[in-house]
Design a protein that fits this description.
By secondary structure, the chain is of the alpha+beta class. The chain is built from 5 helices and 8 strands, in the order H-E-H-E-H-E-E-H-E-H-E-E-E. Mean pLDDT is 84; it is low at 1-28.
């Protein structure tokens, strides 16, 4: 799936900024206060997680270590942002766990952000998924003054990153992977609060949702 030029331009600029910001995680703000970079994510089912991890390792065997290996497979709900105190955001995470109503998530085939060499599992956009993302953006803005990035507007593209590759390796991998047909469906059960160490993203906290999944078909 190829994003439109306007989206690819936004993605290119944002990922350059996000990757640059990651290098400063845990460093000092201009006023000397140390900050952490954190993000809210959906953690995948075991089946989808294991498939993605295996594919990441296969890509590493072919092209060497890559950025995709520096975070557990996930779907980002809120891109990384810097905080001086993680506790309020951990409390908000705990609140989300009690309030989110589970829904179905689908991963479908492999996608590519050409301009930045990113390979990803494509996530099917649904009203439930978009509603959860919008809710988190709104809460963070109103409660903590954390404003969304330009990329987090209407054009936001849900995805689960597999790898960042050089231009040559990306084109080779793209040719090999674009014909693969993949589809995973799973119930949203677990969300994560991730933290950047300055080198990689680690799952600082993970929790299962307290509400049970209600199958719209009436099946259990």
């Amino acid at each position: 799936m190829r994003p439109p030029d306007s989206l690819r331009s936004l993605v290119s600029g944002m990922y350059r900024r996000v990757r640059s910001a990651g290098l400063r995680a845990g460093g000092s703000a201009p006023n000397g206060v140390r900050t952490l970079e954190i993000a809210y994510v959906i953690l995948l089912s075991d089946e989808a997680h294991n498939y993605m991890s295996k594919l990441e390792i296969e890509l590493m065997k072919q092209y060497g270590p890559h950025e995709g290996l520096k975070a557990t497979p996930h779907i980002t709900l809120k891109l990384g942002f810097h905080v001086t105190d993680i506790e309020p955001f951990e409390q908000y995470f705990d609140q989300l766990v009690t309030e989110i109503t589970p829904f179905e998530i689908s991963l479908k085939n492999i996608g590519f952000f050409d301009d930045v060499g990113i390979i990803f599992m494509d996530v099917v956009h649904t009203p439930e998924l978009e509603g959860l993302r919008r809710r988190i953006l709104k809460d963070l803005s109103e409660r903590y003054g954390i404003n969304p990035y330009p990329l987090e507007g209407d054009q936001y593209h849900f995805h689960a990153t597999l790898a960042y590759l050089s231009k040559h390796d990306f084109e080779t991998a793209r040719h090999r992977l674009k014909q693969i047909n993949i589809r995973f469906k799973f119930k949203l059960e677990t969300i994560g609060l991730m933290c950047h160490t300055g080198e990689e993203w680690v799952t600082y906290k993970r929790a299962k949702l307290q509400h049970k999944f209600a199958d719209p078909s009436g099946k259990h």
